[in-house]
Amino acid sequence: MGTAPASRDVTSYGMGLAAPLALFFLFFFVAPLLQLLWLSLHNDTAGLHWGLGQYLHFLTDPFSLSVLGSTLLLGAEVTAVCLVLGFPIAWLYQRVGPKLQTVIILIVLLPLLTSVVVRTFAWIVILGRQGIINATLQSLGVIDTPLKLLYTQFGVVIALAQVQMPLMTLPLITALGRIDPNLDDASCSLGAGSWRTFFKVVLPLSLPGVIAGCTLTYAAAITAFITQSLIGGGQMLFMPMYLYQQASTLQNWPFASAISIIFLLAVLAVVSVFTTLGRLSRGYGGA
Amino acid sequence: MAEAQGGRSLVVDAVTHRYPSGALAVENINLDVKGGEIIALLGPSGCGKTTLLRIIAGFIAQTQGRIIIGDDIVDALPPNRRAVGIVFQNYALFPHLSISENVGYGLAARGIDRATRQREAQRLLELVQLPAMAERLPRQLSGGQQQRVALARALAIKPSILLLDEPFAALDKNLRLDMQIEIKRLQRVSGITTLIVTHDQEEALSMADRVAVLGHGKLEQFGTPSDVYDRPQTLFVNTFVGSSNRMPGVVISADRTAAKVRLDAGAEIIARPAGGVLTEGGRVTVCIRPEHLQFVGDETGFAGVVGMSLPLGATVVHEVTTADGSGVKVSQARIGETRALESGAAVRLAPLAPSLANAFPATL
């Protein structure tokens, strides 16, 4: 691969230097993906007969489609909660002193320093029938019978939002930090109030961060196998668990492969919608 | 250009501001600015001039004192209700909005409809001579053009006062002069009371009707450019505005208009007591500008040895070491064949006139 340095430009390096990573991706990413695709194009579990049967099965099966739908919806809900809760934190971070900034960054990063399993079990303790929320509400006399929080869509969304929050907050902090603080003052001196300044200046200029954060949170939320399964319990089925059941329990590898490919395409479609929205917004990454 | 609305007056009344840490940012500043005047706030970085600008704009609430615009005390008003136009040092144009939308931003905040906004933006862009740029984005404009847009944006809200924060610092030298002329022209047309914050004395002296010199958070002098340059009231002003030789000495005799000072460099000269009454026997610092020193043939002045001569075009600057070991600079106009001075030549120096040497009580 190594390109001969015909022009002695010190900033250009031979493409060969990228070879180790390229080989790594080739063997451990591209090859398995192709294998997956190859497997999904077989009609029988033994992998002997070619055909599009697995895809037809998925796309004509109301149950499979409802699993896909509820997974994509779950991602949207988690992303929305993260955005609504994460934006104020990121905004606050840019407006406090260095000491408080350290505290905020620590709080934001803390979830990443604990295992997902541990965090998820913490949520089970919080949301359970005898959990913190129900016990508190009952002792206050607000409710008589415990609320059903665990094994509900609400519970999954809340737990996932907490688990994925750093993926939203960190890009937002970066994006808001890039906005010239003088713009706030300029807007204010021109007669705009704080809300107008926020919607006309801060929000549009933070769009790159909003889009990056939404993409990361969304992708992470819909593929979060552990949290989805533990908080959702047996009654709620999302794509990762569905896939796992087909592959591991039912040994239906071609169908599991087809589910993976469809899931992958669905995620790519949503991500490209985010990216297109970003490109449409003017002043994208503007100087 | 029916812009003239007669600028409103601005009074800064005994304004003091402390940082939360307790350190003084500005102390007891009093300024009385007449409607339509151009005032320069001149001082080195860290002297509190930007703090004062932000207090007037309403971004900082001062610890003590009042800001009065026209007949109104504005201390209780937030910045968005003060109608003070600001041109920021980095222009702070909204990068995601077109030039026209930038200029119309303040009008939109006032609920003015789109058509009127666009018409008004176009009129202002013509005023700052950028009529064809309305649909561009700020990053597609040069620095000078961005500044014109920032100016148009500030003028669009018909501000009672225009504040310019280091407006020319980011421009190269040729463009700077153009923009200085441009801003003076626009100020004449609009008659708007204007405050320019700057650390550049040439800018302050050439642009302003009056200059307020700030040093270490205090107002050192507030007067016309010639007052500040020719009759400095403090040692700080004398050395900060223009260049000056500082020569220590002792007062032999003094009254209100003249003081006889024995310089440590070894001569008795007559100086103007600039910073108040001087006491006999007290230590003073005498400031003499390089262009106000001359070489003398007789025994009147003080002695020195020429170190180096720098020909600077219209003038020649000589560096001379005096008997007490301190260095003074002498600027000589180049008239005809100026006598070349060898390094090491012994010379004698004296001020051109007594009024051109200012004596200030030594602080230590």
UniProtKB/TrEMBL annotation, chain A:
User: What's its membrane topology?
Assistant: Multi-pass membrane protein
Location (main, coarse): membrane
Q: Where in the cell is it found?
A: Cell membrane
Give the transmembrane region(s): 21-41, 67-91, 103-126, 154-177, 255-277
Q: Which GO terms describe its biological process?
A: transmembrane transport
PANTHER family recorded = ABC TRANSPORTER PERMEASE PROTEIN (PTHR42929:SF5), INNER MEMBRANE ABC TRANSPORTER PERMEASE PROTEIN YDCU-RELATED-RELATED (PTHR42929)
Name of this protein? ABC transporter permease
UniProtKB/TrEMBL annotation, chain B:
Which superkingdom, per the lineage? Bacteria
Query: Which part of the chain is the ABC transporter domain?
Result: 10-241
Supply the alphabetized keyword list: ATP-binding, Nucleotide-binding, Transport
Matching PANTHER family, A to Z? SPERMIDINE/PUTRESCINE IMPORT ATP-BINDING PROTEIN POTA (PTHR42781), SPERMIDINE_PUTRESCINE IMPORT ATP-BINDING PROTEIN POTA (PTHR42781:SF4)
> What's this chain's function?
Involved in beta-(1-->2)glucan export. Transmembrane domains (TMD) form a pore in the inner membrane and the ATP-binding domain (NBD) is responsible for energy generation.
Query: PROSITE patterns attached here?
Result: ABC_TRANSPORTER_1, ABC_TRANSPORTER_2
Gene Ontology molecular function, alphabetical? ATP binding; ATP hydrolysis activity; transmembrane transporter activity
- Gene Ontology biological process terms, A to Z: quaternary ammonium group transport
Question: Nucleotide-binding as a keyword?
Answer: yes
Q: What is the protein's name according to its record?
A: Fe3+/spermidine/putrescine ABC transporter ATP-binding protein
SUPFAM superfamilies found in the cross-reference section? MOP-like, P-loop containing nucleoside triphosphate hydrolases
Q: Which GO terms describe its cellular component?
A: ATP-binding cassette (ABC) transporter complex
Q: Which family does the record claim for this protein?
A: Belongs to the ABC transporter superfamily.
Pfam families in alphabetical order: ABC_tran (PF00005), TOBE_2 (PF08402)
UniProt cross-references to InterPro entries, sorted A to Z:
AAA+_ATPase (IPR003593), ABC_SmlMolc_Importer (IPR050093), ABC_transporter-like_ATP-bd (IPR003439), ABC_transporter-like_CS (IPR017871), Mo/tungstate-bd_C_term_dom (IPR008995), P-loop_NTPase (IPR027417), Transp-assoc_OB_typ2 (IPR013611)
